[in-house]
């Protein structure tokens, strides 16, 4: 019976959206969310920045202060970027992921992979950010 219930849930659940499945308005909304969070970091507005994080990220860090402390410690390129260039949208971990070329405060470039999650109300939230250093040849 349990296996049948699990199978029904899987069949009735909407499929995960990959990058190729997104309409132009979703792509624009994703970039707006990311840019809005970057803007909030620039203002040191932890409440606003935390509000763009997915429920899982919010549960993990619990407060805007805890979230901002993590960002300041481990995500200097997105906390204080010198330059930001949105690139393509790819699929990572089964989710749409926005690639963003960022030059950090130290002048070094990274690719920030923003894993996105669509909420039940249709809005987008950031479900993780993975930083990948860019080699001098790629910069």
Provide the descriptors you would attach to this structure in a database record.
6 helices, disordered N terminus, alpha+beta, 139 residues
Walkthrough of the structure:
The protein has 139 residues and is α+β, with helices and mostly antiparallel strands. It is built from 6 helices and 4 strands, in the order H-H-H-H-H-H-E-E-E-E. It has helices spanning 2-12, 24-42, 46-51, 55-61, 64-74, 76-79, and strands at 83-92, 95-103, 109-118, 124-133. Strands 1-2-3-4 form a 4-stranded antiparallel sheet. A hairpin with a 5-residue loop joins strand 3 and strand 4. The radius of gyration is 17 Å and the shape is globular. The relative contact order is 0.16. Residues 1-15 have low confidence and may be disordered.
Strand content: 25-35%
How many H/I helices? 6
Q: Which regions contain 5 or more consecutive residues with pLDDT less than 50? A: 1-15
* Overall number of strands: 4
Mean pLDDT: 86
Morphology call: globular
Give a short account of the largest sheet.
Answer: 4 strands, antiparallel
Portion of residues within helices: 40-55%
Order of strands across the biggest sheet?
1-2-3-4
How far apart the termini lie comes to 56 Å
Rounded to an integer in angstroms, the radius of gyration calculated over CA atoms is 17 Å
* Structural class based on helices, strands and sheet pairing: alpha+beta
Question: What letter string, H or E per element, gives the SSE order?
Answer: HHHHHHEEEE
């Amino acid at each position: 019976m349990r296996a049948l219930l699990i199978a029904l849930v899987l069949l009735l659940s909407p499929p995960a959206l990959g990058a190729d499945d997104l309409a132009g308005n979703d792509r624009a909304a994703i970039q707006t969310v990311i840019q809005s969070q970057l803007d909030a970091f620039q203002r040191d507005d932890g409440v606003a920045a935390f509000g763009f994080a997915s429920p899982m990220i919010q549960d993990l860090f619990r407060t805007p202060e805890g979230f901002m402390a993590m960002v300041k410690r481990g995500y200097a390129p997105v906390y204080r970027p010198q330059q930001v260039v949105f690139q393509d949208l790819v699929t990572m971990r089964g989710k749409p992921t926005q690639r963003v070329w960022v030059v950090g405060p130290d002048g070094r470039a990274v690719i920030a992979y923003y894993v996105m999650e669509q909420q039940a109300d249709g809005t987008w939230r950031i479900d993780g950010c993975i930083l990948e250093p860019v080699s001098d040849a790629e910069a």
